[in-house]
Amino acid sequence: MTRWDQAPEIFSLADELGVGGTAPASSILDYCHRRIDAWVAKAGGVTSIDALESLVTQKLQMVFEEIRTDDDWERLKEVYARGKKEFVFGAIRTKFDDDHNLTYGALIQRRNAGPADIDRFVAVIDCRDNKLARRFFTRWHEIAHRLTTHTDMLEPVYRSEHDPIEKMMDEIAAHVGFYDPLFRPIYQQATEGVPHLKFATVETIIGSGFPSASFQATLFACTRRLPTPVIYLEAALDHKKEVKRRLAAPRLFDVDPPPGELRVVKVRANDAAFKDKFFIPEKMRVPADSVIHNLFDADPMTDGNGEECLSHWESQGRSLGHRAVVVDARKVHDRVIAIVQPVDAARAKAKCQMSSLLGQENTGA
Ligand SMILES: [Zn+2]
After folding, report:
1. SS in 3 state form for 17-79?
2. Least CB-packed of 88, 142, 189, 196 within 10 Å?
């Protein structure tokens, strides 16, 4: 399987933006950063992520329309379809109500807008029900589309979330939505002297500068910057492949399916984890003595943490190697989310901080 960042669509997009090359995804990312940095420099700096968002959207001539209740669809119809003769707004709701292919946002280019209109592009953001948690990220995802749109879009485009272009937009949103000059100082202050990344650190960062960002998006912004290995995982009840096959086959009698086992259903490792070959494979059974397992029956939003050994993790008779890890976990809906980090990484980090301190003393002397 080719990686999304090597897909032909990504190469074409980079070409369209005039930044081709062998690493198109990072060239596109740099291109977005350069545009934003230039606007920020011209504005004399920004002090908050909201201020950055308004600066960027103003430059891009785009406005947001949020859908909080079903009445908002009527409002959009009134304002844009009847008022501004933008008829695409009359039928837009259908896409957002499709539960099989979740749509969080759409960017619409107005046909009847003048070249100087501030609402030449309208980003519709669905904030109903569970989609509300993604609001911040969806706004930046739509900004990413606009940042990389040069050709006219006569109709809004809806792609699957697995489409390489959508993955690219998520990548841009994850970077520019946590704009480094704003995020870095808050992150550094929150992680100083803390040996491992903790859920509490993520909450401190949200509270100090990113109040609209979701916990998960902020957590990923942290893991991306963490110089030491970290794995994010989600554990939920899941069946073995052969049981799944049996359950899917038609049966003559209704029999209760066997209970699933708590398994890793999603894993995300940061760059340092890849380099260090620190990994927990998907589908692996969560050991009964893990803090993740203990939390599974807890009430939602209960947290737990502890130190354990990776050798307790096994699947099909094979276990992971001995390695002491710290686990920070939380029960959320039907699953437990967790970050797992090697204990020795803390020592490496301390050493790193120590040498940079010494470095500062040397230059000061
Ligand atoms: Zn999109």
Report:
1. CCCCCCCHHHHHHHHHHHHHHHHHHHHCCCCCHHHHHHHHHHHCCEEEEEECCCHHHHHHHHH
2. 189
pLDDT of residue 364: 35
Put residue 341 in one of left, alpha, beta given phi > 0 → left and psi -120 to 50 → alpha: beta
Tell me, in angstroms, the distance from the centre of ligand 1 to residue 270's CA: 24
Ligand 1 midpoint to CA 145 (Å): 7
Q: What's the 110 CA to ligand 1 centre distance in angstroms?
A: 17
Ligand 1 center to residue 185 CA distance, Å? 29
Q: What separation, in Å, do the N-terminal and C-terminal C-alpha atoms of the chain show? A: 54
Q: Which residue has the tokens 């308004």?
A: 54
- The parent domain of residue 307 ranges over 230-365
Report which residue type is found at 243.
V
Q: Is 357 exposed, middle or buried (0-12, 13-18, 19+ CB in 10 A)?
A: exposed
| One domain for residues 9 and 133 | yes
Pick from 127, 125, 124, 54: nearest CA to 86: 124
**CB atoms closer than 10 angstroms to residue 120:** 16
pLDDT along the chain (365 residues), means of 10: 86 93 95 98 97 97 96 96 93 89 91 92 94 95 92 70 92 97 96 92 96 96 95 90 66 64 94 94 92 93 94 84 94 95 74 51 38
Number of domains in the chain: 3
Same domain, 286 and 186: no
Residue 166 Cα, ligand 1 centroid: separation in angstroms? 5
pTM score, two decimals?
0.87
Give the ranges where 87-179 is alpha helix by DSSP (H).
93-96, 135-147, 164-176
C-alpha to C-alpha distance for 112 and 135, rounded to whole angstroms: 28
Q: Write the single-letter amino acid at 233.
A: L
Shared domain check, 186 and 72: no
Cα–ligand 1 centroid distance for 168 (angstroms): 9
Element (H, E) at 235: strand 231-238
